[in-house]
Amino acid sequence: MIYILEDAINGVLMGSIYGLTALGLTLIFGVLKVINFAHGSLLMVGMYAAYWAIILTGVHPYVALIIVAPVMYLFGYYLQDIVIKPIFKAEKDVREPITVIIVTTGVWYILDNLTLLIFGPTYRNIQDNPLKGKMLEIGEMFISVPKLWGFVTAVVTAAAVYWFLQKTRMGRAIRATSLDREAASLMGINQFKVYNVAFGIGTATAGIAAVTLVPFYNIFPSVGVLFDIKGFIIVVLGGLGSIGGAILGGIIIGLIESIAPQFMTATWTEAIVYGLFLVVLFVKPSGLFGVKYDW
Fold it and tell me: Are 92 and 215 contacting, i.e. CB atoms less than 8 angstroms apart?
């Protein structure tokens, strides 16, 4: 029984990190109304940014947040401004431009292959890592310290994003645009600036998730694909556009992946995850925590 409890705790911790990786994805969908297929690649870029920030400066892995989060925000802001905004302007009468999905898929392939070209296929990790293999002993249970820090980071980030959306002027503009961009424009809100900021915040959260993964996860050019798939499942489970739903959806996946292998093979564990995804998609397409509106 103690081992199941230990697995459940570690599953919640890892699940919260999954939720953090999906947070930016659900935020971007909630505002722009498009699925960002390049989100996993942005997470990968964040992991490489965190890796090199730590290697070159020698700072603690979590201190790298000070560097990675602003850099990723600017990267996302200008990616939206330069690459995606022209499509929205060209298809301004379309609520959910399909062309954007094609473009983000292109960005995904470009980023992955450009990273492969520059850094090669070598798996990288931080050798002098103060968090590597560190465990917190509670009675007979061992809790992963890097994942515990990831859990705290995920909760704080989700709370900060929610506070920003609810309490700040730009946050209210983002929520207004997510509900009705035409009405928001009539009220004087620059919808394209809102899109840039929302995309920047979504990319910055991917960067924060990347920093939480670097202490215990290998870094390689296609690492984003693994989290991209989980991210889409989590967003559907939690509810499209739901911040709390992203974290809770991630925890559900984390619990399944952690506890189920105690009773069955890893193949069946994956089957349960995808089965749950399909059930929710058919029974409640808005997700477990979805509401009538996006926010």
Answer: no
